[in-house]
Specification:
The protein has about 375 residues and is α+β, with helices and mostly antiparallel strands.
């Protein structure tokens, strides 16, 4: 049974009666453009065919009651008295907090949730959870669905409620992607362009089986270093800094901050070149850009770990691989590869074996499809509120 069927069936068992609707919000993999989002730059993610699913029914009061199939637990919180705690439910509370701060009157609901986005892997299970919650609150509270606005709500939930200083990319990808396309996003203007993926190449995600916690990682330190560099160069954000100006003035920065800035400046250029390569159907050029991105993340931004470097090396050594890089915030999690469609099975087997030999760890490898963003999958019956 697929996840949509699982949450519907479990809802009937857990709450009695049918859910009113089912929503789905995908995780994402970023093809290129890492750590550029909070520098107001350019990114190129795609939504995955792995997602968070929620079957829900409105309540007459302002209580949210959710049963998690993944954790086998129930959680209840009142919309009128939101309190911070810990765990996955904080992402739901954060979305409710931001929407209410914006003046929206929200309805309570019962729900059953399940997901198949690997947690902590860099595939944005948190953004998927935020956008699934946003879809539910919008549908049950009569709010217009505006992808860019709801992406901002998700980002603010993470910044202001959860305490992670993330950019906007993950939420925009989960909110606004189109099936079969990557999403070229200007993180300042939120202008988007849907770019078709090259038909002769598959996107393969490789999970290292190592995990990192963003709140406790060096993510916020990297962000602070980028802000320091922007102040030095007298620009609002590093996206405003061109390669030539960077080269002229970089000697005035300390070595570490200089390397952080160099990654952002060059990574923004790589995103623009990647879009051009995709439009020209030049998968060789696109693969080379992925390889260059990983080297920059490893050497200048220093957000890889041994496992990420090992799995990327394993991928790049396969004859069917055009290019590979770490993806996500780093310090563990996943890498992404661009692979010839005719060689995916051999690629998966070759990477799994080589990575196990190098690291002693088992990997999870997924051949991925580009999916659509957050959506109401099923209106199962006329909206009727439970007692």
């Amino acid at each position: 049974m697929n996840l949509s069927g699982q949450v519907r069936e479990s809802f009937v068992e857990h709450f009695g009666g049918n859910p009113a609707l089912v929503v789905r919000a995908p995780g994402r993999v970023n093809l290129i453009g890492e750590h550029t989002d909070y520098n107001e730059g350019f990114v190129l993610p795609m939504a995955l065919d792995r997602a968070i699913w929620l079957a829900v029914r409105p309540r007459t009061d302002r209580i949210v009651c959710v049963h998690s199939l993944d954790f086998g637990s129930d959680t209840i919180f009142p919309l009128d008295e939101l309190k911070k705690d810990q765990g996955w439910v904080e992402y739901l509370k954060g979305v409710a907090y931001v929407l209410q701060a914006d003046g929206h009157r929200l309805s309570g609901w019962d729900g059953v949730i399940r997901g198949d986005v690997p947690r902590g892997s860099g595939l944005s299970s948190s953004a998927a959870l935020e956008l699934a919650a946003g879809r539910v609150f919008a549908a049950l509270s009569g709010l217009e669905w505006r992808p860019a606005y709801m992406a901002r709500v998700g980002q603010r939930a993470e910044n202001e409620w959860v305490g992670v200083n993330c950019g906007i990319m993950d939420q925009m990808a989960s909110a606004a992607c189109r099936e079969g396309h990557a999403l070229f996003l200007d993180c300042r203007s939120l202008d988007i362009r849907h770019v078709p993926l090259p038909p002769q190449a598959a996107i393969v995600v490789m999970d290292t089986s190592t995990r990192r916690g963003l709140v406790d990682s060096a993510y916020n330190e990297r962000r602070s270093q980028c802000e320091e560099a922007a102040r030095f160069f007298g620009v609002r954000a590093l996206r405003d800094l061109g390669p030539e100006e960077f080269e002229k003035k970089r000697s005035g920065l300390n070595e570490v901050v200089m390397r952080r800035a160099r990654h952002i400046v060059t990574e923004d250029q790589r995103v623009l070149e990647a879009v051009a390569a995709m439009q020209a159907d030049d998968v060789t050029r696109l693969g080379n850009l992925l390889n260059a991105s990983h080297a920059s993340l490893r050497d200048d931004f220093e957000v890889t770990n041994e496992a990420l470097n090992q799995i990327v090396d394993a991928a790049q050594s396969q004859s069917s691989c055009y290019g590979a890089r770490m993806t996500g915030a780093g310090f563990g999690g996943c890498a992404v590869a661009l692979v010839d469609v005719g060689g995916t099975e051999a690629f998966v087997a070759g990477v799994a074996e080589a990575y196990r030999e190098k690291s002693g760890l088992a990997s999870q490898i997924y051949i991925c499809q580009a999916s659509a963003g957050a959506s109401v999958v099923d209106h199962l019956k006329k909206m009727s509120r439970s007692d």
